[in-house]
Amino acid sequence: MLSTLILNSNLKISEAEFRFDQLQKHFKSLNLQYAFGSEDATGVIKKIKYDSITNKFIGFPTPLDHGVPIKEYYHTDSLDTLKLWFNSIDKASLLNVHMIQPVQSATQNTIPSSFLLSAYGIDNTATANDILQRW
Predict the structure, then answer these.
(1) How far is CA 69 from CA 15, 77, 87, 101, in A?
(2) Which domain of life is it from (predicted)?
(3) Domains of the chain: which residue ranges?
(4) For 92-114, what is the mean pLDDT?
(5) Which pLDDT score is estimated for 131?
(6) In which order are the strands placed within the sheet that holds 115-122?
(7) Do the beta carbons of residue 97 and residue 41 sit within 8 Å?
(8) In whole angstroms, what is the distance from residue 109 CA to residue 97 CA?
């Protein structure tokens, strides 16, 4: 059901991409100024999927650079590289999600919906320092 909603909305979400430009547009369209940010991880079924639109493999744990996930890391045209990944890298066991909840202003009648800022696979090896660097 969620995947159908995403497909029907023409929403483009790429693994490990932080969608700050879309967040800014969302805030401007609703005349929002303040929000709460959160980060959480949830368990997922371990599997690898191929995204034919982006030519990337999704489901491996996303490597971090100073706490920030490296976008489009698992992109290859080489069968040998893909075999190496399958043989040496475990599948992601968790999905890490960054959400933004806008704060309703006094002039608004409805509570603004939450905004998905980023999502990516992890394997629970991030350190406290990685997380502090990300924020």
Answers:
(1) 9, 21, 22, 22
(2) Eukaryota
(3) 14-134
(4) 92
(5) 84
(6) 35-43, 94-102, 115-122
(7) yes
(8) 28
- How far is 122 from 135, CA to CA, in rounded Å? 17
Neighbours of 106 (CB within 10 A): 4
C-alpha–C-alpha distance, residues 16 and 30, integer Å: 25
* CA distances for 120 relative to 40, 44, 76, 125, angstroms: 11, 11, 18, 14
Q: 107-119 pLDDT, tens per residue?
A: 888 889 999 999 9
Q: pLDDT band for position 55 (50/70/90)? A: confident
pLDDT score, position 10: 59
75-82 long-range contacts, CB within 8 A, separation 24+? 82/57
- Answer yes or no: are the C-beta atoms of 50 and 57 closer than 8 Å: yes
Mention every residue, 6+ apart, whose C-beta is less than 8 A from residue 112.
30, 32, 101, 102, 103, 104
Other Cβ atoms within 10 Å of 62 Cβ, number: 22
